[in-house]
Amino acid sequence: MADTLEFNEIYQEVKGSMNDGRLRLSRQGVIFKNSKTGKVDNIQASELAEGVWRRVALGHGLKLLTKNGHVYKYDGFRESEFDKLSDFFKAHYCLELAEKDLCVKGWNWGTVRFGGQLLSFDIGEQPVFEIPLSNVSQCTTGKNEVTLEFHQNDDAEVSLMEVRFYVPPTQEDGVDPVEAFAQNVLSKADVIQATGDAICIFRELQCLTPRGRYDIRIYPTFLHLHGKTFDYKIPYTTVLRLFLLPHKDQRQMFFVISLDPPIKQGQTRYHFLILLFSKDEDISLTLNMNEEEVEKRFEGRLTKNMSGSLYEMVSRVMKALVNRKITVPGNFQGHSGAQCITCSYKASSGLLYPLERGFIYVHKPPVHIRFDEISFVNFARGTTTTRSFDFEIETKQGTQYTFSSIEREEYGKLFDFVNAKKLNIKNRGLKEGMKQSYDEYADSDEDQHDAYLERMKEEGKIREENANDSSDGSGEETDESFNPGEEDDDVAEEFDSNASASSSSGDGDSDRDDKKPAKKAKIVKDRKPRKKQQESKKGKDPNAPKRPMSAYMLWLNASREKIKSDHPGISITDLFKKAGELWKAMSKEKKEEWDRKAEDARRDYEKAMKEYSVGSKADSHRGERSKKKKKKQEKQMKGKGDKKGATSKSSSSKSPAKSMSDSFKSKEFVSSDESSSAESKKEDSEEEGVASPPPSSEDSASGSD
């Protein structure tokens, strides 16, 4: 017989909700790990007192009772697994797995039995239903009536909130059956009552979630947050994990308490309690217990009088009362030397801490992701700038978390950390020499051929080559845009407009590291070419040669009809997926044939492009010559006009009356020589499309003489 039995998709009933997870039975005991929270319940084999097999709503269930009165219920078994479980219990736990069916008569009267943490309503010897008393939040009594109220279950669409029992009066003197019933319930119920004094009190602590300043009163079974507006009572049984995280500024500390179920305020749920401390704050603490009680209860973990930093005292007291380890950052160290990474999540800036077994983000909203629930991670280019990148995490349940605006310098450290933890990286292969060794969470979409990406890469190569041919020494790109491990031609994939535009923007970025005057001159110089590129981009020449297709696209065009005939009714999306699979499975020799065709097409394109560029350059030269000639003639005419204006001014100062009379003379009074020269000049200017200025007053005067 096997030493262990493992069952997947088993449901544990906890406070009215069914939490799925994995159940493992071994010689040492029973272990159940919750898939949602990661919480582990461990039942030692020596503690098991009884095992019951019964039919339930989700198939068949297993109920385990321990010697200290705790009850554990696991549902989701198949009927055929009973024999295997029964033999295992006999061999390793020395227990008979009893079969007990629930009563389904539908009667609403019977007998109530209290056994450990369980209230059982029975008809005869068969149970009708059972209520774990830890689910009870309040118990009230009336005349011959007891009312039980339950904790609200956030995970269920409909949850039971109240049950009333009618207790008939008895003839026994001195015993009230209603009060006796209520006392039995309250002795095991999860009812928080602040009786007695607190063990210690921390005053005016800064709390980020829920926001405000609170006094924290520490009681033996719960902690009490007392603020100006709200009060919260948090049982220690709801605390899942404790985190102590240093702030990036090295002057503050976060103390994070993970809660399940969360604390509630109206419709808001707080799954995390986050406290912020300054490292410089010290405190002297005296516990409200005598030294013998402190030693007996905490076994040396706490003393009656303690002093030290405030965050150390709070974390130490919480660790002793909750009896859970405090998680701190591991060996990760970022580019700046801090143990966290600055990033943004849901439009709020915060800190991401890579831990030994997960990631935690603080603080708004706080997020904790365990490694065992991660399907894959992805490193993506930033959407607004090349100086940052995004870190994406997708869980096995399909939830996606995107941490954006991470500095590019953090990429190497974060990639090495993720790789060391053997997490599946979706865009694996972006760093040279890396081999995927963690296949357990491999993603099926990772290796599929992306036809669109292939085409964009080919077009990017051609655009870069054309940009290099047409560039006139504007300088090389020195600031590399972030692209983890990809080739440089992928820049065109992100910026499809013009590859040369990306090079000019790179020049601008590279000058940011130089002195300010150089940066200013560079920006002024580079703006004009970029404007010209945008203007030329608007009007696309229809006579320009078309870009050649890649080998894959040539093959796809030739094979498209065959794929359609082999798969009638196939959609466009499925056709491309199928084409990608066929191309991937194609032999190297066949691919080389299409590569040769693509190379021939590229040569033809380059040849046509050269001929086209020569013709376009000739046209541009003709246009430039005509513009230069026109500008030259405009300058000549302008200089001549200024000269004549100056001479007319001097002559008018000598004889103002004469100039006034001569300025109004008609053309027939002008001498034949002057008129002929003026007419020739006018004809020349008309040929160039420029109007000649009127003859000066001096010329007209000399003509009249």
From TrEMBL:
Where composition is biased (Basic and acidic residues), the residues are 532-544, 634-645
A GO molecular-function term, please? histone binding
Domain HMG box, residue spans: 545-613
Q: Write down the DNA-binding region ranges.
A: 545-613
Give one GO biological process term.
Answer: DNA replication
The alphabetized UniProt keywords are: Chromosome, DNA damage, DNA repair, DNA replication, DNA-binding, Nucleus, RNA-binding, Transcription, Transcription regulation
Which ranges are annotated Low complexity under compositional bias?
Answer: 497-507, 647-663
List the biased-composition ranges (Basic residues): 517-531, 624-633
Per the record, GO CC terms? FACT complex; nucleolus
* Main subcellular location of this protein, as a coarse class: nucleus
Its annotated function is as follows: Component of the FACT complex, a general chromatin factor that acts to reorganize nucleosomes. The FACT complex is involved in multiple processes that require DNA as a template such as mRNA elongation, DNA replication and DNA repair. During transcription elongation the FACT complex acts as a histone chaperone that both destabilizes and restores nucleosomal structure.
What name goes with this protein?
A: FACT complex subunit SSRP1
